[in-house]
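$ run holo --ligand "NAP" --emit tokens
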Amino acid sequence: VVRELPDLVPGPGTVVVDVEAAGVNYPDVLIVAGRYQLPVPVPFTPGSEYAGRVSAVGAGVTRWSVGDAVMGASRSGAFAEQVEAADDALSPVPVGLDMVSAAAFHVTYATAFHALVTVGAVAPDEWVVVLGASGGVGSAAVDIAHRLGARVLAGASSQSRLELAATLGADEGVSYLDDDLKRRIRQVTGDGADLVIDPVGGPHAEQALRGLRWGGRFVSVGFASGEIPRIPLNLLLLKNVTVRGMDIGSISTRVPGARDDEQAVLSRLVAEGMRPLVTDVFDLESSPEALRRIADRRARGKLVVQMV
Ligand SMILES: NC(=O)c1ccc[n+]([C@@H]2O[C@H](COP(=O)([O-])OP(=O)(O)OC[C@H]3O[C@@H](n4cnc5c(N)ncnc54)[C@H](OP(=O)(O)O)[C@@H]3O)[C@@H](O)[C@H]2O)c1
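-- output --
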């Protein structure tokens, strides 16, 4: 339901943001379904990513002023006209992004960048396999990897999804429902891929891992397929493969400042023209349809709920 609630009032160290747009992410679907790793107590307002303007600042806040354009992430509460956030939980909207783009940018681009660069150590000319390449995190990973000079083999469930990944710079594609993923990786890369970015999990994960070269890297980002893969460890041993996981939410809270350098590079890429691929915008009343589209695997790129 969409319902009027009293205006929020900031507490010490917090600000109130008038939300202009909220990104829709796969975890929102899991949270609403009660299937997320960290449950959110009911009742709650869905939505975990937003962009808007600071409308009130609490005692002790020096970082932000009324009117500042900010973006933020939280487990819930973003599909609303206002959110309250700790002052250190917000980032400035990069110059050049409008509010709809900013709402679609924060989570997926930060996640994809961290996976590719900080965890995956991607280098120019390397072959990167991106699974779920037309989804939110996947499309951001294709975009960033291409802009950093890597070569991208996009994996997706249909040709039309691969065409979308190609518009973001994917050099090659594999429709993994029709084609043998490991064989196709070998065919495209020769020795095998250098790096796999996997937001999907399921049976494709092991096939992609088997497509890595000796010494290759695999970054586990999520399980949009609903299936957490179990990888035989001998695959890692024999080829000196590194598998790493990452969780962008806990990195930001456990290692404050760790992502400042990443933010600077992302802002530079935005200044050079990088934009998230927003394929549809919904009003607040239609936000269940946006969630449904993601749950039913019908979404491409990013969906956004616009408040104003
Ligand atoms: N580790 C982190 O810090 C972090 C941060 C953000 C998100 N995530 C996770 O990353 C994953 C992707 O998130 P997202 O926002 O990019 O999601 P999304 O936009 O819905 O994209 C997910 C992609 O997964 C593929 N997929 C395969 N089986 C699916 C199924 N049964 N249902 C839905 N999609 C399916 C789809 O591509 P095809 O149809 O082409 O296969 C889809 O494009 C989620 O598991 C999310 O929780 C992790």
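-- notes --
The chain has a mean pLDDT of 96.
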